[in-house]
Amino acid sequence: MTGLLWLGALGSWLFVVTFLIDGWTRPGYRPVRHPVSALALGDRGWVQKTNFIVGGLAITAGAAALPGAVDSVLLGVVVAVFGLALVASGVYPMDPMRGYPPGTPEGDPPRFSETHERHDWAGFAVFGALPVAALVAVFVLPGTGWKVYAALTALVTVVSMARFSQAWESDDPRTGLIQRVFIVTGWLWLGIVFAHAAR
After folding, report:
1. Number of domains in the chain
2. Over its length of 199 residues, how does the chain's per-residue pLDDT go in tens digits?
3. CA 63, 71, 69: angle at the middle one, nearest 5?
């Protein structure tokens, strides 16, 4: 079980490292504006698709070991939902839009594909499950420090999720940056929780 927990930690952290490096080095991609999901498009799209699927599977595997490590089936289930939703995000990529990949018209397409709609549903699960996991952790993790850290993570992810939703609807030029606040905060916290449980 310890190995699965470390797998979950590595999956969480490497997901962040991968999309940050890929985003900063991808021609035509603007990390401040474009969402992480857009990295699954274009010639190098396989990198982020793999990142979604491998990271999601690693986190799901770690989630299977959480109940025995922190004595909370609920936390394990919520994290597993989060991990599986990440896998689905890789299997069903978003549509090209808002200037990416290069040559794509600005704005949204007149109609979204079924694949894009499935990606959106997976995204709802990702962005919903992580704050819930942090909130559950407030009540199940021992020690004041861990409870405070989980509470702060829940607060930051809820606020950044709401702000990202607004930014996405208005095509705010900082949409990608706002999303990255949610992802970096949540994924790093989850990796630390896995590592703590493994020890």
Report:
1. 1
2. 899 999 999 999 999 999 999 999 999 999 999 999 999 999 999 999 999 999 999 999 999 999 999 999 999 999 999 999 999 999 999 999 999 999 999 999 999 999 999 999 999 999 999 999 999 999 999 999 999 999 999 999 999 999 999 999 999 999 999 999 999 999 999 999 999 999 8
3. 55
3-state SS record for 154-198:
HHHHHHHHHHHHHHHHHCCCCHHHHHHHHHHHHHHHHHHHHHHHH
CA distance 173 to 132: 28
Contact criterion met (CB below 8 Å) for 89 and 65: no
Q: What are residue 100's DSSP bridge partners? A: 97
**What separation, in Å, do the N-terminal and C-terminal C-alpha atoms of the chain show?**
11
